[in-house]
Amino acid sequence: MEKGTIYLVGAGPGDPDLLTLRAARLIESASLIVHDGLVDSAILAMARRDAKLVSVAKSRSKHTLPQEDINALLVREARAGRDVVRLKGGDPFIFGRGGEEMEAARAAGVACEVVPGITAANGAAAASGIALTHREDASIVTFVAGQCKGLSDQDWAGLAGKGRTLVIYMGVKTAPQIAEKLMGDGLAPDMPVAVIEKACRADMRVLRGPLAGLPQLVEREAVQSPALIVIGHVTAREDVALLQLAEETAQETAS
Questions:
Q1: Are strands 84-88 and 32-35 parallel, antiparallel or unpaired?
Q2: Do residues 113 and 7 touch, judged by C-beta distance below 8 A?
Q3: Alpha-carbon gap, residue 138 to 234, rounded angstroms
Q4: In sequence order, what are the beta bridge partners of 88?
Q5: Alpha-carbon distance values, 194 to 90, 114, 135, 191 (Å)
Q6: What is the pTM of this model?
Q7: Is 137 a catalytic residue?
Q8: Annotated catalytic residue 198
Q9: Nearest to 14 by CA among 164, 198, 162, 170
Q10: 86, 144, 149, 213 — which has fewest CB within 10 A?
């Protein structure tokens, strides 16, 4: 029996219009889609009526299937001759465990194709009007996971600050530890922060404040996943632009 192919497909940050053409075509034609919990329902609705949708959603406290079982599921279906669309929020290779699934496929002798997607950081920042790099504020961008083993032991010194932007995935539940960690490494308590919730969706929210107030901001606003935390002066560019506009208006009025 001829083996099927595993397609590791990035679903982007949420809006179906931001899918690549390749991703959209695979979703619309697939007979089997194994998807994460962060894939928007509007994207799943693109699947054909007879497609089998299998959720392997993960949360901080509960995994529908351990990663090893997901790997085994993908390989088993492909070995049975079925093509499998493994659909992931954002990009498969940015905190999506796509690398682990690709390695499992290769070890089993199964064909595997990666279809990139717009990673959440880029999608969320663009939708929020935040330029992750800016000639005046940041020439370096770093992505980190805020929900992982040994968070307190990791060295984040120098990842945020002057000329840098730090984007934290999966950091809602660990916001107090994140703020404490960064300030302990020397980052100023008044460093601007933006929390972007449900990016590129109809109910998207962008919340702003200082680093020291990050835990209170997340708690007060009851921020829910998916959400990203962006730390750096680029998150305050809108305030700078408004201030400049106000100054220019005042000068014009005075003259």
A1: parallel
A2: yes
A3: 7
A4: 10
A5: 19, 31, 19, 10
A6: 0.86
A7: no
A8: no
A9: 198
A10: 149
The count of other CB atoms within 10 Å of the CB of residue 142 is: 17
| Catalytic residue (one of 15, 36, 40, 91) | 36
From residue 36, alpha-carbon distances to 47, 97, 103, 134, 176 in Å are 15, 11, 19, 33, 26
Which of these is catalytic: 15, 17, 40, 58?
58
pLDDT tens sequence across 126-155: 999 999 999 999 999 999 999 766 677 788
Spatial separation of the C-alpha atoms in residues 213 and 55, rounded to whole Å: 36
The total number of residues shown for the chain amounts to: 255
Residue 255 has pLDDT above 80, yes or no: no
pLDDT in tens, 93-131: 999 999 999 999 999 999 999 999 999 999 999 999 999
Alpha-carbon gap, residue 178 to 159, rounded angstroms: 12
Cross-strand bridge partners of residue 207? 195
pLDDT (tens digit, 9 = 90+) per residue, 21-54?
A: 999 999 999 999 999 998 999 999 999 999 999 9
CA atoms within 13 A on the CB side of 111: 12
